[in-house]
Amino acid sequence: MILFGKQVVLHILTHYPSVALEWYLSKEVDKALFARLRAHGREHGSTIVRVDSQKAQAMARGGNHQGFLAKVHPPKSSSLATLKHMNRILVLCGLTDVGNVGALFRSVACLGFEGVIMDTQLPYEGLARTSMGALYEVPFCVCPRLLDTVQELKDAGVYCYGAHIQGDDVRQVVFKHPLAIFLGSEGMGLTPKILRKMDRIVHIGMQSKVGSLNVSVAGAIMMDRAL
């Protein structure tokens, strides 16, 4: 699996060094960084490979690699049997934008939530890049049958909160734990069947004519309020 972009690659080097197998450079780097890459190779067995710009562009599939790429181990998914016993879970329903989902993984890691359940399998390369490597830190699983997932969480004693414009103001809600926050896609939101199974519906009050937030921003606010 190939990741690209200077900040992502350096973040992997600093925070998740055990997942890297090879480093690909298509431009010169300063001596200090090159020394770090060589030290990583001695400790973890990775190698440094020089590639030309055309090769780097092909490896990044046209993305902005900035001369930095890395071959990494793919992340390992967990299971619902494990995640349902966590105290704070984020559940993503119908989200397919890799940028939004990656940003939510970053927020989960930063805000102290413990796991992510998705109903849609997304490309790990994109998620690892947009999450700045948080995909390697946050346990996650893919459960396409969301109604069954909700029931299994509830059977495990998890309180289920759904984000919807007609819900209670999140600032006034006292969250019960263990909990799961359900987010729907920006276009469709949570389906009526999912909403009916929620223990409570919550929303973020808007203070202007702008009627909604980006789902990754809304998710971060919801998680912060639920801590």
Automatic annotation (TrEMBL):
Gene Ontology terms: biological process: methylation; RNA processing
InterPro entries: Alpha/beta_knot_MTases, Ribosomal_eL30-like_sf, rRNA_MeTrfase_TrmH, SpoU_MeTrfase, SpoU_subst-bd, tRNA_m1G_MTases_N
Keywords per UniProt: Methyltransferase, Transferase
Cellular component aspect of the GO annotation: cytosol
Record-level Gene Ontology MF annotations: RNA binding; RNA methyltransferase activity
Pfam families for the chain: SpoU_methylase, SpoU_sub_bind
Domain RNA 2-O ribose methyltransferase substrate binding: 2-78
Name under which the protein is recorded: OMP1475
Species of the source: Helicobacter baculiformis
